[in-house]
Specification:
The protein has 66 residues and is an all-alpha fold. The chain has one domain. It is 74% helix and 0% strand. It has 3 helices and no strands. The chain is rod-shaped and about 65 Å long. The chain starts with a helix and ends with a helix.
């Protein structure tokens, strides 16, 4: 599931980067493309950081030991 989200985030970054290039040429509004690129980068970095989060120690249980 996380791999799909990372791939989706990278695709959104590429699309928003293309829209940013179009906005620098004057074909698309900058006030839409810049926040879209920032949001997509934040989304992707957030997904990558949540993968490596410490989730705590598992409690020792006698049933798991045997």
């Amino acid at each position: 599931m996380q791999g799909i989200l990372i791939i989706t985030g990278i695709l959104i970054i590429l699309i928003s980067f293309c829209l940013l290039i179009l906005s620098l040429m004057g074909l698309f509004p900058k006030w839409i493309s810049i926040p879209m690129l920032l949001g997509s980068i934040l989304f992707t970095v957030n997904i990558i950081n949540q993968r490596h989060r410490f989730k705590g120690f598992k409690q020792f249980n006698k049933t798991n030991f045997l």
